[in-house]
Amino acid sequence: MDTNNWRPAQAEPAMDGGDWRTQLPPDSRQRIVNKIMDTLKRHLPVSGQEGLHELRKIAVRFEEKIYTAATSQSDYLRKISLKMLTMETKSQTAMPSNLPSNSAGNSKNPPDPGKEKIYQ
């Protein structure tokens, strides 16, 4: 009970999980938000300061959600890493299929009707 009175604001959400959170330096969380930002910038189109500000808000909300839900520091890092890896994988899978379809779509659509008429 004494620990509950000692720091109620930090321990209120999850008393058991509060221990690992108090041991995590705040600058670590900021570095993680920056890494999330780097990943988002690589995979989402951003234009101007407003776009960067929106990405920062997304990164901060995501980090906060994982931080709150995680049961330990390793769980926190694992969940963030898995999400970033999933984003990388989905982006790599989507990009090759998008590029050929876009380039094929741009070059294929106009010639196709003409080719069909020529060959028919």
TrEMBL record:
Record domain Mediator complex subunit 15 KIX: where: 18-95
Stretch list, region Disordered: 1-26, 88-120
Name of the molecule in the record: Mediator complex subunit 15 KIX domain-containing protein
Species in which this protein is naturally found: Vitis vinifera
Highest taxon above the source species: Eukaryota
Keywords annotated in UniProt: Nucleus
Record's compositionally biased regions (Polar residues): 88-109
Subcellular location: Nucleus
rRNA-binding in keyword set: no
A GO CC term attached to the entry: nucleus
Gene Ontology molecular function terms on file: chromatin DNA binding; transcription coactivator activity
